[in-house]
Amino acid sequence: MRKLLKGISILCVFVLLIMATACTEKPAETNAPAATTKEAAAETTAEPVDTGDDLIVVGFAQCKADESDWRMANTASMQETLSEANGYKLILADSNNDAAKQVADVQGFIDQEVDYIVIAAVNMDGWDTVLSSAKEAGIPVILMDRTINASADLYTCWVGSDFKAEGVKATDWISTRFTADDEVNIVNLQGQLGASAQIGRSEALEDAIAANSNWTLLAQQTGEWSTDTAKEIMASWIQQHGDKINVVYAENDNMADGAIQALEEAGMKVGGDDGVAIISFDANRAYLQMTLEGKINCNVECNPLHGPKVAEIIQTIESGGSPAKVEVVEEAAFYYDTITQAIVDARAY
Amino acid sequence: MSKTKNLQNPPSVIMTGIGKSFPGVRALNQVDFKLRRGEIHALMGENGAGKSTLVKVLTGVYPMDEGKVRLDGVPVVIRSPQDAQKHGISTVYQEVNLCPNLSVAENLFLGREPRSMGLIDWRKMNLKASELLQKLNISANPTAQLDSYSIAIQQMIAIARAINTECAFLILDEPTSSLDADEVNKIFTLMRQLRDNGVGIIFITHFLEQVYEICDRITVLRNGELVGEYEVDKLSRFELVTKMMGKEIENLSELSVDRDESRFQGEEPIIEARALSSGSKKVAPFDLKMYRGEVVGFSGLLGSGRSELVRTVYGADKPVQGQFFIRGKNVRIRKPLDAMKQGMAYLPEDRKVDGIFPELSVRENIIIALQAKTGMFKRIRRKEMEKYADQYIDLLNIKTANIETPIKSLSGGNQQKVILARWLLTNPEFMILDEPTRGIDVGTKTEIQRLILKLASENKSIAFISSEMDEMIRTCSRMVVMRDRHKVGELTQGNLDQSTIIRTIAGGDNEDGAV
Amino acid sequence: MKMGLFNDRKGPAMLSPSAGKKLLNNRLIFSLLVLMVVVVQNIITTPNFFEITMTNGLLSGYIPNILDEASELIIVTMGMTLVIAASGGVDLSVGPIMAIAASFCGLLLNGSEYRTDVYHSPYFLAILFGLVGAALCGAFNGFLVSRLKIQPMIATLILFTAGRSIAKQITHGQTIYIMNPTYKWLGVQIPGIPIRTTILVSIAIVILVVLLVKLTSLGLYIQSVGINGSAARLVGLNSRVIKFMAFVICGILAGVAGLVSSSSVGSVNSGELGLSIEMDAILAVALGGNNLGGGKFSIAGSVIGAYTIQAITTTLYAMNVRADQLNVFKAIIIIVIIVASSEVFKEKVNRLFRHITKKNVPVGGLSDERQ
Amino acid sequence: MRDSKKTTISASSPLGKRSGLSNTGILLLITVSLFVILYVSSTILFKDSNFAKYSVFFNLINNKAYLLMLALGLTVVLITGSIDISVGSVTGLVSMVIATMLSSQSNISAIWAIPISLLIGVAFGIVQGYLVSYMEIQPFIVTLSGLFFARGMISVINPKSVPISDKLFMSWSSAKVYIPFLYNERKNGTMDVAYLTPAAITAIAVLIIMIIVMKKTKFGRSLYSVGGNPQSALLMGVNVKRIKFMAHVLCGLLAGIGGLLYTLFAPSGNPQNGYGYEIDAISSSVIGGVMLSGGVGLPIGTLFGVLINSLIERVVPLLGIVDASWPRIISSAFLFVFIVLQSLFASAGHKGSFKPVLPQWMRFNLKKKN
């Protein structure tokens, strides 16, 4: 055993040696171009020194690339926009909804000295340490879609949706549908608790309920963004409250889908002018279709196509400018009575 | 020389009137045992004689039902092996009871590792271990993992461990069963050394040569009862085997056996083995012919290879060499199913480990072999199953609440009958019965013996193994004798009497040398 | 009423004579007790518990709901029961296998489109394809366990971690929506039949498994291999093949559950299908009084175990317990059941009882079946 | 990469002589070599990604300090032949409790986070250990319930993301202990000095303690003996039940420490924290050479298991695979290779035909007394 440990320590030394040689090689390799590009860099100021080719390396820490249709569209948008053809090299790290892994991924980007870091945060909190490392290493950080609780000087800017504004669009629609005398009984299928989309959308609803005395929140539970869970919860609500429910406020498309199925299977009329009003968010193609069919009354868009905006910001920084701290992507809301087939077909995701 | 020197010591361990029962079996009945310091005391007896039970009672593995134990005159109650160790009684079992994943040194010192500053001092431990190993002449590296050594070495290490504790009494429960002559000699050297240091050793073995080489006294047990205590020099091998096997044929109705070998003249043997042997040297190449309608006994002491031989025939141990013929056709038996398809049946020696499915019902235990033979998709209909089960419960007089009772709640004898029923149901032409009467009551024994003869008269061929000589003599028409994993003889007609058999098994008094 | 039905097709464990003591020794009794408590609790709190109404051509109400929601779990539990009985280990990969099966099916129906009304290939072919995919996954697990002798839990860990990603690859990384109404036949309703198809499928699967176990000798083989491998070999059984088959069957059944689940939501989302169902299935088997160490098993027990878990879940939902807090209650109830039915606990209770009554019973008194 | 792999395969061809290395040793050696090969080849393959930097290497430890704790805990219980799948949820629970405790409303000192996290872990360990060893309930079911319970309790305590605002705790979290002389120059000319976080230092300290405990204490050796052959261990005077119980308590304690280190690394409470970490911990232990059948494994191996885990996480995004689901398939493939290797060794070792595996020059333990 002793000898074995000795062997292992020899191996460890071996690793360090390899690292050391690799380290000494590296400067020798990059010294010459570095010297030349330094002059060039002096001319074109903000241009970061590349490692050979001219691609801008972007590290993208996605929270969970295949979490939902929305997220998939979001990932795809980044991959398409920041392609090598467009002069970027995108390194996608999928943290699979693991906050610690995401922090490690970002730390990895810093160690690998990427040019930009884009983060779609799993968790709002706990970012200070790693973001100060990024700042120290001089790497601009762009936050995407989800906000974080960190001091504003730690990141360059935030791109994304205003979730509360989305929620307000939805509650506005509810107030147009019902008069002040109507009894409005709402059930709320929440997203993953703690996600900023859930917080924003729930907040908007809770504010609206507080403001309207005729609105009641019958039940509120997390469907964890999932069709299946939402369906199960909805079925249990139908058992409890029956026909009283007249508004379902589902915080994403998948959960709205689950709720609709539960309602339909219980024989209740869904959507349209006289059915249970269904509110959904995200507005993916499949659900815009459902909006067109009248099953979803109001589908508030949550634009996943952040790629172009991010590219725009990077270009701004590259050319020496500084982007605005908050860059909100444009979002619309779609209503069952105004949506057209053309809108659905135009949707890319 | 020193052999008799310590015989005069007063007994230090005195066990009197020991009784112990297990469900369905009376394992020990009023057994007395004495052990002196500085002697090597052989504990002899065939299967089920109660040797292991006696030892386990002494070491606190089993609580005894009745009886007393005195150590140096003081009555003691030993509750656990640890307790026994505190009283200076250490045990080495047949299966190595060490941890295969630890190093040799650790196995020697586990629980009493040398320490410095509260931490295990490996250097010191390895040093002490290698000293100990050297002293005992065991060639093992203290730092190597235990399972990198052969079972023999592991066994020696186990003895070394037992010795290393401050032990006054050492129990060696068949430690030599897997060792070769050289290693046995080493252990003997060790044992003598210990004896001369005043350690009392209980030595359990099946090898007579070893008993006569090293032991001072012999205590013989049979069927859970004490036969007697003898001094080695005053008991011949012949007498010993006689005492172990039981001389008096119990007063049972006479069974008649046709021993006329000539009736098989010109007939085709149902089974023929030519130089067959199994892997891992469990049994040396052997020839064997068996005919329809005969019962062939396989005798020899435990560990002589008698079970291994039949296991090889059945394919339970994979045959590696030789040729095998069934009804004159050369076949290869790779696994038990092959043998079953050729009309063989095998009632295993160890009912618990290889025989019963404890949680399954009597019915399921009976039909399982037939079902396995017919295949998964040809399920025997429930009605049919019940019919079979009822039929054999009647036929063999199995005592069970009903056919759906789990077999584990039956007594040993009835469990055995269920397994017998299992094989009879497959309608075999050739049956191997390894200790079918072990651990069951006398009445059932006779029933099974009758059944064996009845089957033979129905033109079936039966290989029969039993530790009880009289039973074999009464049922077999021919007897194959095994010694030291070799087939040493075949006794027929005229030779088939008790003294010849015992002489063949014992290998003669003047034969010399350790096995 | 459900229980009554299954009591008739008793698994072997249910056959023991119904003496009071035997019944108490039956490990199933505590699950049944909990199930009963849950039902009674429901009857008290919800007066319309037994009410079954016809809505939209479907029977609905609390009981049909529970039956419906338990169906996937039951199907998966059947396979899990066999695997546990044969190998003494668990199959962690059933959830991902569900996703894989549904993905195969969805791929065939949709081509590579994300949403379709018209099937690209016949529905039954797609189902077959999905099941074959699931069977392959099961075979992979079975190979690792029976050939390479890897512990089942670790062997199935591989598909557990990779399975959903594989499913994602099959569907080209997108959620597939299948809008053709016939797709919902399997998971919701076949027009004209007032009972949910899920319930019918789960009953059919239970009957099928019972038939498979009873009509062929697979059940006996599996138990024999699980109880005493060495004896099983000597009576001519091939334990490798039998373990392998148990895993394949478990895979296929997980596939069926996957298809049902995907059909009931009308889409294939490989990240979601059967999420964390493996844990519930293992618990169902344990609650059903089956030994997780392998050997004897009872289909009826597993069914009751599955219903117990689903009844707890549904009741807690109805009591407005949040989905994420549900686990606390589940854990407590389960640990109580398991502890109460454990041998050591019974012995301790017995000893305590004896101590109180000061009866002088000999030490070996518990095993009273000497002869 | 492919070349270097080839050499190890050919290197492991049988030679027919008895090697002095035990199974444990061989598995450990494989793990370590795999780590080295992986590291060296990524250094060569991904030149732009600076794998040769010291900071990258040290961050492998910094990033997974908490996982090392969990994996060590599992190593302990797996060695005794038991299992604990509640560690991930316990981690999450600890982080949620700490976060709730240290959120802005309360003014409890951050010092309390330490005893409380340890206490939570030990409490889980005691209950589960009792049920497993003294009530003889299957560990899988017990710890599965533990998993459910802890996961549910997180939501009961707080269903939302909770920030930690406590200054003292955050200073622990963001502290870096720089390692002198180990630095590289960044592209922009600044110095990138390798560092260890307090969490990593704690983890390394615990690792060292564990190595000593496992190697040099009676308790540690008893763990191995219980896992190797409980029957023998009992006969050799080991209190098997107590040792199993203690193993679970130790595992709980390590999970508690793991939770604390996790919270230092990602300082916030979230219902999702620690989800699925039990699987990561098990696979790290298995990759590190722990056998699930018990009795085999070394803490140092577990360290390398964790490092491999951490390294794969770094390397996979660089493979340039666009599809996000591939990384998980690749990590699983790694696990698969390890498990199959182990099984081959284990079964071959059992038959007695498995001895050689290593070429002459690689054996460390050749000198045997005859």
Question: Could you characterize what this model shows?
Answer:
The complex is a heterotetramer of chains A (349), B (515), C (371) and D (370). With 349 residues, chain A is of the alpha/beta class. Chain A folds into two domains: 54-160 and 304-318, Rossmann fold, CATH 3.40.50.2300; 163-302 and 333-345, Response regulator (Rossmann fold), CATH 3.40.50.2300. Chain A is built from eleven helices and twelve strands. In chain A, α2 (69-81) runs parallel beside α10 (307-318), α3 (99-112) packs parallel to α4 (128-136) and α5 (163-177) packs parallel to α6. Chain B has 17 helices and 22 strands. In chain B, 34% of the residues lie in helices and 24% in strands. Chain B folds into four domains: 1-88 and 168-235, 3-Layer(aba) Sandwich (Rossmann fold), CATH 3.40.50; 102-166, no CATH class; 252-343 and 430-496, Rossmann fold; 345-427, Rossmann fold, CATH 3.40.50. By secondary structure, chain B is an alpha/beta fold. Chain D has 370 residues and is mainly alpha-helical. Chain D has a single domain (2-362), classed as ABC transporter involved in vitamin B12 uptake, BtuC. Chain D has 15 helices and four strands. Chains A and D meet through α1, β2, α3 and α4 of A and α2, α3, β1, α8 and β4 of D.
Task: Break the fold down into its secondary structure elements and pairings.
The complex is a heterotetramer of chains A (349), B (515), C (371) and D (370).
Chain A: H1 2-43, E1 56-62, H2 69-81, E2 88-94, H3 99-112, E3 116-119, H4 128-136, E4 141-144, E5 157-160, H5 163-177, E6 184-190, H6 196-211, E7 215-222, H7 227-241, E8 247-250, H8 253-265, E9 277-282, H9 285-292, E10 298-301, H10 307-318, E11 326-328, E12 333-335, H11 341-346
Chain B: E1 11-22, E2 25-36, E3 40-44, H1 51-58, E4 66-71, E5 74-75, H2 81-86, E6 89-92, H3 104-109, E7 115-116, E8 119-120, H4 122-135, H5 151-164, E9 169-173, H6 181-196, E10 200-204, H7 208-214, E11 217-222, E12 225-231, H8 237-245, E13 271-278, E14 286-290, E15 295-299, H9 306-314, E16 319-326, E17 329-330, H10 336-341, E18 344-347, H11 351-355, H12 362-374, H13 382-395, H14 412-425, E19 430-434, H15 442-457, E20 461-465, H16 469-475, E21 478-483, E22 486-492, H17 498-506
Chain D: H1 2-11, H2 23-45, H3 54-63, H4 65-79, H5 87-101, H6 113-134, H7 139-157, E1 162-163, H8 167-174, E2 177-185, E3 191-196, H9 198-216, H10 218-228, H11 230-235, H12 240-265, E4 268-269, H13 277-287, H14 299-318, H15 326-351
Antiparallel strand pairs in D: 1-4, 2-3
Helix pairs in contact in D: 2-14, 4-9, 4-10, 4-12, 4-13, 4-14, 5-6, 5-7, 5-12, 5-13, 6-7, 6-12, 9-10, 9-12, 10-12, 13-14
